[in-house]
Each structure stands twice: as structure tokens, then as C-alpha cells.
Specification:
The chain is an alpha/beta fold. Helices cover 28% and strands 29% of the residues.
Length: 258
């Protein structure tokens, strides 16, 4: 391995658990440089694009964009290690060895084993195999869907003139935010609300709505087609509308099959 330090990103929505893992990593791998810490999957993707670390430690259960969805955005560009609270029966997804995992609370011996495997993979230039990685992520994603008990958001309240409008979520076309407001667009009109787009993303069914940019969520049923742009970006074109919505590199994986 070269003298260039190996870099890592740690993503966990629990600050104490995040710090605990970082401290444990310092003991197990003193040369490793943790270049960024993320509180959720979206932040993990944004920080990954900024720092391009070689290793990403992802908590599976994070609000909004979870660790599985973040891993899809990172894909084969880094070594992935999931940090999970799954019972042993759920860990069969990792048997193929496409990615590694740590079970909370993280045990030092297990972490040392993981560190050794990561060093070997980096030395050999091994990246997660495509089909094996996809199979792991699909299995874990299905498990998370089964565990969710909270209902998805059904209505959005917005002031339209002097009236309070109840907008059915299934009628939304897209959401777009700026620093202070989120623009809600549906067939009957548009409205500005103060709810941050990140908060809304946590409450929307990911089978129907996709965040395609840090400031944009789109109803996938309203997408006409995607056009690829420069620097691994793209544009979303909507059915019967002239607006074109940006897709950033971090979310381009959502449209690989389209």
C-alpha cells in the first residue's frame, strides 16, 4: 500500500455511536483518516462526492435516505461497511462478501477483522462486485421495508391565497426547495410551504418519490424521460410539462435502468 493515507467517511444519525466507532477505528487502524462524518444518507452522499474517501461506514437505519440507499449512490466507488443492529438471521445478505458489516455494539475483535479485510481489498484493488453488491442491497432494502411501521405522508398543508389547501400526496408532481421555502407542485397549481425538503423526504414513500438532487424530489410516475448531461449529471423531463429538473451525480444511480 502506498504512503498516501487511507481515507474514510462515517455515517450514523446517532452522534455518540458515530464518535464511538471513530474512536474504535483510531485504535484498530491509527493510520486511517476519517475525512468526514454524516448524520444521514443524503449527507453521506454529498460528503462522499466532496471528499471521495476509499472506505464508507454506513449505519443501515438512518432517517430519510437510509444506509442502503446511500450505498446505491456510492456503489463500486468505495469499500462499503454496513453498521447494523440486525439480528444474526438477517445477516445472511452479507455471506457473498460483497461488503462487510459490523453489528452494534461494535466489538473490537470484529472491527480488527474488518480492518484486515479492508486493507487486503485496498492492497489488491478489489472493489465490490456489481451483481453481488446489488443482491446484498436488494435483500437489505426488503428487510427494512418489512420493518417500517409508520404510515407514509398522505397530505401536505399549504396556504393558497387566504385558504388552507390540503394537497393529496399522490397528486404531487415534484417538490423543489430554496433556502427558506419548499415549492409544492401538483396538477391544480403551486404553493410554497416552510417545511424543509429533507423533512418531507423522510415521510414520502420511496417507491413513488425519489430525491434526485439535494433540492428536488420528483414523483416517479410523472417522469417522462431522462437525458444524460456532462460530469455524470442528468435532467428529468416531466409528462406534459415544460419544467426540467436536475439530477446530481449522487442520485444518478436511481436511473441506471431507465
Amino acid at each position: 500500500m502506498s504512503n498516501t493515507p487511507v481515507t474514510a467517511l462515517v455515517a450514523d444519525d446517532e452522534p455518540l455511536l458515530r464518535e464511538s466507532l471513530i474512536l474504535a477505528l483510531k485504535r484498530a487502524w491509527p493510520e486511517l483518516v476519517v475525512v468526514a462524518q454524516a448524520r444521514n444518507g443524503r449527507e453521506a452522499l454529498e460528503l462522499f462526492e466532496e471528499h471521495q474517501p476509499q472506505i464508507v461506514f454506513l449505519d443501515v437505519h438512518m432517517p430519510g435516505l437510509n444506509g442502503i440507499e446511500a450505498a446505491k449512490g456510492i456503489a463500486r466507488r468505495a469499500q462499503l461497511v454496513f453498521v447494523t443492529a440486525f439480528e444474526q438471521y438477517a445477516l445472511a445478505a452479507f455471506d457473498e462478501g460483497a461488503v462487510d458489516y459490523l453489528v452494534k455494539p461494535v466489538e473490537e475483535r470484529r472491527l480488527i477483522d474488518t480492518v484486515q479485510r479492508l486493507k487486503q481489498r485496498l492492497e489488491a484493488g478489489v472493489v465490490p462486485a456489481g451483481e453481488a453488491l446489488d443482491a446484498v442491497l436488494a435483500q437489505l432494502s426488503g428487510h427494512l421495508q418489512q420493518q417500517r411501521s409508520e404510515p407514509w405522508l398522505q397530505w401536505i398543508k399549504a396556504s393558497v391565497g387566504a385558504a388552507l389547501k390540503l394537497i393529496p400526496v399522490d397528486q404531487l408532481i415534484y417538490l423543489r426547495s430554496d433556502e427558506k421555502y419548499t415549492l409544492v407542485v401538483w396538477p391544480e397549481g403551486e404553493a410554497l410551504i416552510r417545511t424543509p425538503i429533507r423533512e418531507l423526504a423522510d415521510q414520502l414513500d420511496p417507491q413513488i418519490f425519489a430525491q434526485v438532487h439535494r433540492s428536488v424530489i420528483v414523483n416517479l410516475r410523472e417522469v417522462s424521460h431522462i437525458t444524460r448531461g456532462a460530469n455524470e449529471t442528468a435532467d428529468v423531463h416531466l409528462r406534459g410539462r415544460t419544467e426540467v429538473l436536475p439530477v446530481s451525480r449522487a442520485y444518478l444511480h436511481l436511473f441506471r435502468q431507465m
